[in-house]
Amino acid sequence: MRKAAVTTVSTVAGVVLLLSLKPHVNATPAVAAPSPSAPSSAPSSGAPSPSPSTSRTTSASPTGTYTGDTFDTRYGPVQLAVTLAQGKITAVKALRTPSGDGRSQQIASYAVPQLTSETLSAQSARIDAVSGATYTSEGYVQSLQSALDKAGV
């Protein structure tokens, strides 16, 4: 009986200790890793170096509509056309979406508008997938990135 009481008290004390631990919080802000194109041997002078995006002028920013490659997903192909104005994404049009069966059409009909909205907000292909439309989301992002690559963005 005494052994059971000691074991119970020890277990409860261990659980209390574990629950009272606080995760370590880093007080300094996170610093982004250098981009692969940036030279890693450059000495740090403390002054920020210009990034490729800050040295770009607006006159060289692409304007027009760029068609991404077609990407075949498990449920059908996805292809997008992206419209840019001065390097900003102003519209995304789905040229092809999965339509092999009614369920695929239904999924694409609710996923594509959500993905388009996220794209316009993020101004890039770094967007979250739509729950329940993983394959369509992956094809969307791939075609979007393809179009942005063609535009040089």
UniProtKB/TrEMBL annotation:
Signal peptide from the UniProt entry: 1-32
Originating species: Streptomyces sparsogenes DSM 40356
Composition bias, Low complexity: 30-65
Positions of the UniProt region annotated as Disordered: 30-72
Pfam families per the UniProt record, alphabetical: FMN_bind
Domain FMN-binding: 74-151
Transmembrane segments: none
One GO term describing the cellular component: membrane
UniProt GO molecular function: FMN binding
Keywords recorded for this protein, A-Z: Signal
Protein's UniProt name: Putative FMN-binding protein
Source domain of life: Bacteria
